[in-house]
Amino acid sequence: MYKEIDRCRISGSTNLITVLSLGEQCLTGVFPKSPNEPITRGPLDLVWCPDSGLLQMKQSYSLDEMYGNNYGYRSGLNNSMVRHLQQKIHALEQMVKLNDEDLVIDIGSNDATSLKAYAGKCQKVGIDPTGKKFKQYYPEDITLIPDFFSAETFKANFPNSKAKIITSIAMFYDLEDPMAFVKDIEKVLANDGIWHFEQSYMPSMLCTNSYDTICHEHLEFYSLNVVKNMLEHCGLRIVDVQMNQINGGSFAVTACKQNGPYKSNLPIINEILKQEDAMGLDTPKPYLDFAERVFQHRKHLKELVEYLVADGKKISGYGASTKGNVLLQFCDFTTKHISCIAEVNED
Fold first, then answer.
1. Residue 72 pLDDT exceeds 70
2. Which one of 39, 116, 301, 309 has the largest count of C-beta atoms within 10 Å of its C-beta?
């Protein structure tokens, strides 16, 4: 089922302030084969820790349930995501010159879209607990470890290797113990290696009212300042940051070891930190203001949909996504409101 945390996931502080509740919802990342299939329900509550600055889910749900056979996301079905990941890998290959003996890791490798984008003949390793479901999409030159990432898991398969490039796209916010994860990254990263990770950008979520980002899988909602402090605590530093509009606003961080050979893009990093400081993210106000806007949006959206339905209009959806599941349940939309949803993924 689920458990509720009583301390911050990165600092251990018990100082947690509840800032938003989206109510009880069925697991938003699970797509049952039948309408009669039972799905775990549970609350979606956000808490903020003043001591670490981390905005996080109050609940933690069963990993086996969330990442089982009914897990619905596959990167290769979205052409814009495929292009995004390919461009990302090509940029990393320009930054880090890979030899045939070098090893790269993609954590949360899904259907191997990112790993297949590498042009070189280096060793390619995908680590993903849902990997068995997507094994058919892995070429023979990619090693799949169908498990959750840890330094121990990696070393059990590659005892004498370190990674020249590690990527973890849209998964760093899914971790029960993110500090342990960062420490394990540092352990398996080569001294001249880089770690590139992309996830939802919490300040963008606040500014755009993207409350559909809040789902059972996503346990943390990061600012750059929080990430910077985590990396420094674990012997890593930020090299560069890029912002994009993926998933309602994301930030991609490139990091290396403290003494790594890469120069940090301080003008960009410091400007983003300055903008975050101006938002007052070290106070409860921006989070409570966000919560107020969320409920205002729900009120207006429900009024609009109910007006259109009453007027005889037919409403259809496009994309049966995790985010869509959040919106449908939070607004109490049913087939009375939305007749059907088109989706490219047949599963």
1. no
2. 116
Q: Is 212 exposed, middle or buried (0-12, 13-18, 19+ CB in 10 A)?
A: buried
pLDDT at 68: 64
**pLDDT of 119 over the 80 cut:** yes
> What are the structure tokens assigned to 16, written together?
């947690």
Residues 6+ apart with CB under 8 A from 224: 201, 238, 241, 251, 253, 269, 272, 273, 276
What CA–CA distance (Å, rounded) separates 331 from 335?
A: 13
SS3 201: strand
H helix runs in 144-201, sequence order: 151-157, 178-188
In this structure, are strands 189-200 and 163-169 parallel, antiparallel, or unpaired?
Answer: parallel
Domain assignment of residue 36, given as a range: 3-58
Place of tokens 């899988």: 217
Query: pLDDT per residue over 195-234, tens digit each?
Result: 999 999 999 999 999 999 999 999 999 999 999 999 999 9
What is the overall mean pLDDT for the chain? 95
Whether pLDDT at 12 is above 90: yes
* One domain for residues 19 and 143: no
- Same domain (yes/no): 83, 54: no
Give the residue from 224, 219, 165, 155 showing the smallest Cα distance to 189: 165
Q: Do residues 155 and 41 both lie within one domain?
A: no
Q: DSSP state, 117?
A: G
Answer whether residue 234 is part of any domain: yes
pLDDT at 70 over 70: no
In a domain, 165, yes or no: yes
268 or 76, greater pLDDT: 268
Can you tell me the distance from the alpha carbon of 87 to that of 74, in angstroms, rounded to the nearest whole number? 18
What Rg do the C-alpha atoms of the chain give, in angstroms?
20
Looking up residue 128, the CATH number of its domain turns out to be 3.40.50.150
